[in-house]
Each structure stands twice: as C-alpha cells, then as structure tokens.
Amino acid sequence: MNLHLEPRTDAPRWFSPVMTLAALAFAFVISGFIIWLVGGDPIKSFTHILVSAFGSVGVVSDTLVKATPLILTGLACALAFRMHLWNIGAEGQFLLGAWGASAIVLAPILPAGTPGIVVIPAMMLAGAAAGGLWGFIPGILRARLGVSEIITTLMLNYVALFWVQFWVFGPWSKGGFPETEAFPPEAWLPRLTDLAASFPGLAGLTVHLGLIFGIGVATVMWVALERTRWGYEIRLIGDSPKAARYAGIDINRKIVVVFVISGALAGLGGMSEVAGVVHGLQDRISPGYGFTAIIIAYLARFGPFRVVIASILFGALILAGREIQPSGVPAMIQGIILFSIIGSDVLIRYRVRFDRPVATA
Amino acid sequence: MDLTTILAAGVASGTILLFAAIGEIFAERSGVLNLGVEGMMLIGAVAGFSIAMSTGNPWLGVVAAMLAGGLLSMVHGVMTIHLRADQVVSGLALTFLGTGLARVLGEGLASAKDVAQLPHVTVPVLSDIPLVGPVLLTDQSVLVYVGYVLVPVAWLWIGRTRPGLHLRAVGEAPAAADAQGIGVYRTRYAYVFVGGLLAGLAGATITLAIYPGWFGDQTVNGRGWIAVGLVIFAQWSPLRAAFGAVLFGAIFQSIIDIQGVTTIFGFENPFQPGRSATFFLEMLPYLMVIVVVVIGSREAVRKRIGAPAALGRPYVRGERGS
Question: Which residue has the higher pLDDT, B78 or B137?
C-alpha cells in the first residue's frame, strides 16, 4: 500500500480553521492518554485547567496577564516566520528587553522620582532597543555572512539568560537574593485594580497596560502586513524568495529590519512583564515565554489577531499548569500541540490517498 | 591543574557532543535537518538513567537510551519524510516534546543516588605513551573509547563505502539517486533513526558516564543545540566534528575547573563559585558556538562547499526541483 499526497486546490474557507481546532482537540486527547499512562487523571487535569484559568473574572484576568508576554513574543515570532526567518531567540530578546527596561530604574538612568509619564515611555524604548539589539546580531550575521539564524538566536538565548543572572545576582542584587529592589510605583504599568477607587468591581484585577500594547501591536502588524507595500514584500519573500529577488526587493536589508523589529517586540514583552507584573527583575522571569511563542505563532498561522487568541489559550495552560503534576505535563502538551498542528497542515495542503500498487507484469 | 588533565576531561566531556554531532551529520547528509537533538538527548538521558537505576545494569540503560532516542526521531522522520512537514518546525516540536516527556518521566529521579555507572578503562602499555596516553587512554569511560572508534568508522562509512555513497547521493541529488534505484525514503528514515540512536547515546553518556545524575532539563543544558552548531562548523565531516567536540568539551570542563582555583597568575580569581562574574564564564561556550559557526559559514562560502544540497527539502518523486 502506498501513501499519496495530492495538492488540494478546492479547499473551502472554513477548512483551515476547522482543521486547526481538530488538531488542538487531537493534541489534548493524546496528552490525556499520556497523562493517564503515567498514572494521572486526564479528566481531572483538564477540568482543573479550565476552572483555574476561566472559572471566574479574577482568574480570567490572571490568564490575560499570562497571555500578555505571550502575545508580544508570539507576534515577534509570527512576523519573522512570515518571512521564513527562523527567529528562535524571542526568549533571549524578551530577557534583554526586561533587563533594558529595568536599567532605566535600577542603573539608574533616570533619577528617582521622575514621573511615570516619562519613566514608562523610557522603559518601553529601552526594552524595545535592547531586544532589537539582540535581534540585530543574528539578523546582520545572516544577511552579511549567511550564518544560520537558528543557531545564533538559540545561542543568544543562553547568553541573555546568563547576562540577566549576572545583574540579578551581582550589581542589582537585593541583599544577595536573586532579585532586584522593587521598582517605585511610577515605573509600574497601570492595572485595572488601580481604578478600584472609582469602580469597586475592578478590585484585584491585575490586567495591566501591557495587554493594550499587545493588542495595539497586533493591529498595527495586521495593517502593515496586509495593507502596505512593505508587508506585501515580506509576505512575498516568505512565499517565494526567488520571485522577490526578481522583483528587485533587497532581501538582506529586509532580513535585518525584520529581525530588529521582531527583537524589539519581544523586548517590549520583557518590559511589559517587569513593569506590569513583577515590578523588578528576577532570575526566572520567563518560564519559556519565548519558546511557547514559537508554537503560538504556528498555531495562529502567523495571523496577528489569531496570535492574540492563541496566546490566551497558552496563557491558560501556563497559569493552570503550574499546579499540575508531574510538572513536565504543560511542556509536553505544548510539544504535542505543535506536532498536531504540523500534521493538520499536511491535511490542509494535501489530500491523502492510500492506494495499492497496480500489479504490473 | 595541568594541560593533560584539562585535555583528558575535555575529551571525556566532548564525547557527549561527539555522539550527538555525528548522529546529526548522518541525518543531515541524507537531507533531513533534525533540530530535535536536544530533546532526543534528554529522552536518552532520562531513559538511560532510569533503566540503569531500576535494573542495576548501566549497559541496559545505554540500550534503552539509544532506543528511546531512535523512537523519538521516527516521529520527526514520518513528519518530514512522508508528510513533507517543514523540517525546522518539526525538529523544534521534537525538542519541546522530548523535553516535556523527559521531565514527566524523570519526575523523582533527581533524588536517586548510587546509580551504577559505566566502567572506566585504562589501556595497558599504550597509556604510557607521553601526552596521548594520559589524555586519551587513561581512566576514561568505556563510552569515550566507543567515540574513538565511531569517528573513523563514520568518516570511512560516509566517504569510502557504497552505502555511504548512497547516503550522500540521497542528500545531494535525491531525484538522481531515486533514478539509480536507491530508496530515498528508506535511506532517509534509516539515517534519521541512526541520528536518534546516537543522540540517545549522547544523553546516556551524560547521565551514566561523564556527569552522573539527573538534573531535570538542565541535564543536557543546550548541548544538543551546540551539537547542531558543531555540524555546521564541521562542514558535515566527522573528523572536524571530533575536533570541535573536544574543543567544546574542554571549554565546558574548564568552566567547572576554573571556578575551583583561588588565584590566577597571582591575582584573585574573580570566577570563584558564588561570584557573579562566573556568569560570564558560563556564557562562553554559547558565544564560542556563534564564533565557530561564523568561521564555518565563511569557510564554506570561500571553498564553495556547503550543506548537502537537498538539506531541508522533502523529496517528492517526479516533482521539479526536488
């Protein structure tokens, strides 16, 4: 028996999203099976995820807080991937962004007591610049020297991790602990709960301005990709680099620019996390947001608004997954989800036919 | 701390990278990029460690590790060879899956003690040879010797045998190989599997020989990615991979060693344990990978050699450009 793949030409519009949802469902069935194999209770695990991520207004707010860094790093990956640029370094760019934003307060670059209206934009700029720099390095190496960006971005993740650790354990350490002094309130991103004085219903809701950054960036990115010449060129390079070259697009220049923007977005994610949630810099500030972002970008098929939706799903998984035992389960589910998305991709692009070889003499 | 000790430890530590890099060379030579090395190594590390613990026999652990790595690699094989999925994404997915699975399976292993290790061997007579003896042949784990054998065997296999010729043909010009009656899919599955076996072995080399114990996903600590980088530096040659593996083995080892001394050239050592400057030391291997990959890429451009021509591209019979 032979397996044959024939390109699909007549797939209806609903086919791709339905297959993606089916892939997600399939991934959860497989994950449940593995949880059951290692002695867990899959039904209980999944109910737990649902209840502790969406069960009340308070936890929905917590889920959105977890989704915020994922949206920004997910958009960073989606932009690069759309051009077939493998930025696997959103994790490092996120960390550098968190460090850059922290430097404004802790170095200190701006003196204590500077009003928030100045500090916050300065932190945003510093975070995006530091992340952008971390994206520039693999970008320029790829464009000028043809060095695989996969390896360089991955290695820079480790370098960024140790860089942050140096500052957190060393110069910025608070009394030898692996965390810095807390930022002054001027350096905190506004949260919904800050409005509780006028709207008591918002008390305790920790959703912060970073979510607006994420949705705003998603909107701008959608317009840029779908409605501008710049975005058209990026999509063209991604779909057919040869055609792009014939069209006279300077691909190497685009590689550097897209890498810097991608890094800056992830860096902004790092800024939003330190200014909106942690209010300081810590050793383990990211539980792998930059890696989950890769899966999110894929699940969203690089669509900016779909990145926002996928981030909420993964935010829920990370939030609720913290209490699931064994502790590797969320990471495992992420891997299985990515595999079933790639698998569903095949079914979207091709019609699978099994046929027996025709008997010939 | 003298040079021979550093080199001997570097060779031992480099064996981990050597197995993983040679496995990846085999897979990539057949045209399949497998970025799942880190995940396969973790699965190998945890499978080897837990089987050695439960049976008391480290050799069974090695076998289990290799099978686990090989089994995982087949997920990537089916995805990329038959289903034509993007090799980069599928490889990344493999690393996510392997990392998650290893953490699930390794739950509780961290507290395990006294797991039987593979024996260390000193070669009689030959170990008295100056330099070579103490560096290569004295009190090394038996797996290190397996590495010595693997390098020339892999080199000869790829460059001097008929199956090796077929392997290169499938990676460079699959359509031509197909026309010659070489099974492209079969060859690719076989070498992706070999890559998985060797990555699993690399994992077991960590937990059962060189750095015994299970430390969660810190056990492999990026070595799988370094191995992927080494393949580019090695320009897909096992001999150059061996050189790179020892170099990086020595770097990893000296990071540990340097922290142990109190003075360097009469100055106080800033890299003692607990000092924040040690983090710069820890960055070193990863920065060095970027440096050697840049060197490798430049050289490849200059000498007009490069990755196997069909690397990363699925083969579809009768389709143009494949």
Answer: B78
Q: Is B280 on the interface with A (CB under 8 A)?
A: yes
Q: Please identify, in words, the CATH class of the domain defined by B3-303.
A: mainly alpha
Looking at the DSSP assignment, which residues form a beta bridge with residue A355? A2
Between CA B245 and CA B254 the distance in angstroms is: 14
Interface test with A, best of B251, B275, B286, B292 (most A CBs within 10 A): B286
* Contact criterion met (CB < 8 Å) for B104 and A38: yes
At B111 the pLDDT is 73
B294 interfaces chain A, CB cutoff of 8 Å = yes
**pLDDT for res B322:** 41
Single-letter amino acid code for the residue at A190: P
Rounded Cα–Cα distance for residues B23 and B12 (Å): 18
Rounded Cα distance between B83 and A350, Å, is 9
Nearest to A150 among B88, B276, B297 (CB): B88
Interchain contact A88–B (C-beta under 8 A):
yes
What residue ranges of chain A are covered by domains with CATH 1.10.3470? 55-320
Select from A278, A291, A261 the least CA-distant residue to A82. Answer: A261
Is A345 part of the contact surface with chain B (CB cutoff 8 Å)?
yes
Helix or strand run (H / E) with residue B120? strand B120-121
Which of B251, B276, B287, B311 to probe the A interface (max A CBs under 10 A)? B276
Averaged over B125-136, what is the pLDDT? Answer: 84
A69-79 pLDDT per residue, tens = 999 999 999 99
For residue range A124-183, list pLDDT tens digits in order: 999 999 999 999 999 999 999 989 999 999 999 999 999 999 999 989 998 878 889 999
Q: Which residues contact A206 (CB under 8 A, 6 or more apart)?
A: A61, A62, A65, A191, A192, A193, A277
Q: Using the 8-state DSSP alphabet, how is residue B210 labeled?
A: I
Are A88 and B92 an interchain contact pair (Cβ–Cβ within 8 Å)?
A: yes
- A 19-78 residues with CB < 8 A to B: 34, 38
Among A152, A294, A330, whose Cβ lies nearest the Cβ of B92? A294
Three-state DSSP string of B16-69: HHHHHHHHHHHHHHCCCCCCCHHHHHHHHHHHHHHHHHHHCCHHHHHHHHHHHH
Model ipTM value: 0.90
Tokens of B163: 């199956």
The pTM (predicted TM-score) of the whole model is 0.92
Instruction: Report which residue type is found at A11.
Output: A
Q: What is the dihedral of CA A313, A316, A318, A322, to 10 degrees?
A: -150
Q: Measured between beta carbons, which residues in chain B are less than 8 angstroms from residue A343?
A: 79, 83, 85
**Mean pLDDT, residues A233-261:** 94
Classify domain A55-320 by CATH architecture.
Orthogonal Bundle (1.10)
